[in-house]
Amino acid sequence: MRRRIPVREVVVNFCFRKAARPVLAAGAFALLVSFAGAPVAFGQAAAAQPATKNYKDKDEYDLFLKVTQTADPKARLQLLNTWQDKYPTSDYAPERLQFFVATLQALAPTDPTQRQPLIDKCVQELKADPAAFLPNYYISLWGPIVGGTSPSADLLSTVDSAGKATIAAADATFADAKKPPTTSAENWAKFKVGAISMGHNALAWVAVSKKDMATAESEYRASLTANPDQGTVSAQLGKLLVETKDNKKVPDGLFEYARAAQYSGPSAVPPETRANFLKYFNTAYKDFHGSADGAQQILDQAKTAALPPAGFTITNAQDLANASAAKLQARIDSDPEFKIWYAIESQLKSDAGPAFFKDNVEGAEIPGSSQNFTGTVISADASKVVLAVEDPAVADATILFTTPLKDTEAAKIKVGDKLPFSGVAESYTKDPYMLTFKDPTIPGVQTTAPAKTGKKKR
Question: Which residues touch 58 (CB under 8 Å, ≥6 apart)?
Fold first, then answer.
């Protein structure tokens, strides 16, 4: 006599009983979702079967019963294989396939050999229901791990479809009405954003495999928008953006490395890896920007944000140099006296500086022809004034007075003011650069300088 099996009751009890089994971090969320959603899926599948659904004989019934009562997934997998080999066609083939998927998923985190079989069983399950959430989710989770850096075209296509289906099904799968009584609303919401981010991560992997970096960037950003708590994904996006070597994208890439280095919450990378990311960020930031200025501010921002704020940028060192050079050239073109100053400075800083000073500058009246250099006063007293001609914050000129200035005249020279001057060069130093004049002429300031005897500038 053929007996009917109460499929819904057996499957539901089995699935809830295994719900708390620990797994590797990469699959923990997947397993939790699987046992939260699988009972419903199994029960619905069973309920949809015809009322006359039966096992073929007592041996099939015994196998089914052993599957539902076996806690160890390895032993359960052997039973499932025996059941499938002995009864390739069965009224309970759909339930058996679901048990295969749940069992292989329990083994996949610690047994890499079961990951491809899990994907294969998920593909089989999707033939009956292409929108089924769990098989699409598991393919999204394990497909990139199985495929690695050399995936087949078929696997890429499978993962692409699964990633899109996972995202599309998230709202319905995690609707409030479907929340299990034992799951908090907060965790149920987290499962949803975790599923969405997993789908985007799968699509990013497909895009990277196809060298479609624009799509990969978009998918990684979507993943982090849905679920900011993903240190590894931040690092993956950072690597992708930095490797473009596009000065418009590298800043965001550095921000993502900062995020991976600073984030220490759920799904953070290990501490030693965070330390390596921090070291890389500090070095790469300095190389890109030209200094460490601003680095800490970015690290502080990255502690609380997975993506950079709108308008975020880091000025590239080369861009800074180009802007500085353009500004310098504009000043040279518009200021004849500064053009002379800069030409003399450039020569004196070169290897031929000593000879150039001796032959062209020492004892020469510069800038000559009633012209004047202009510098910002850095310090001043009655005997010496230090000025900054090229950069208003960097001293590069000193004027000395053989006879100290009278108090009334010295009072006219104030720190921070612009001061015109000309005179006879006496000496210089290359590093730090400083050109020294003795007894110069300062318009508006009466000095006791002796009559100029210097040669005219050539």
Answer: none
**Cβ atoms of residues 252 and 288 within 8 Å:** no
Percent of the chain with pLDDT over 90: 80
Q: Under a CB-based contact definition with an 8 Å cutoff, are residues 39 and 15 in contact?
A: yes
d(CA 412, CA 419): 10
> Both tokens of residue 327?
């500004």
Q: Is 87 left (phi over 0), alpha (psi -120 to 50) or beta?
A: beta
- Cα separation, 373 vs 336, whole angstroms: 9
Is residue 283 domain-shared with residue 342, that is, in the same domain?
Answer: no
Residue 221 forms part of a structural domain: no
Q: Do 170 and 92 fall within a single domain?
A: yes
Quick: pLDDT tens for 251-265.
Answer: 999 999 999 999 999
SS3 label, residue 89? coil
The answer to whether residue 217 is domain-embedded is no
Identify whether the C-beta of residue 104 lies closer than 8 Å to the C-beta of residue 117. yes
Opening angle at CA 148, ends 144 and 149, nearest 5: 125
Q: Give residue 109's domain range.
A: 7-208
Q: Do the Cβ atoms of 441 and 451 come closer than 8 Å?
A: no
H or E segment and range at residue 378: strand 373-380
255 and 382 co-located in one domain: no
Q: What pLDDT, on the 0 to 100 scale, is given for residue 37? A: 40
- Does the pLDDT value for residue 5 go beyond 80? no
Q: Per the domain annotation, does 214 fall within a domain?
A: no
pLDDT tens digits, 61-77: 999 999 999 999 999 99
| 417 and 287 both lie in a single domain | no
Of 208-217, 376-385, 439-448, the poorest mean pLDDT is in 439-448
For the cut 90, the answer to whether the pLDDT of residue 51 exceeds it is no
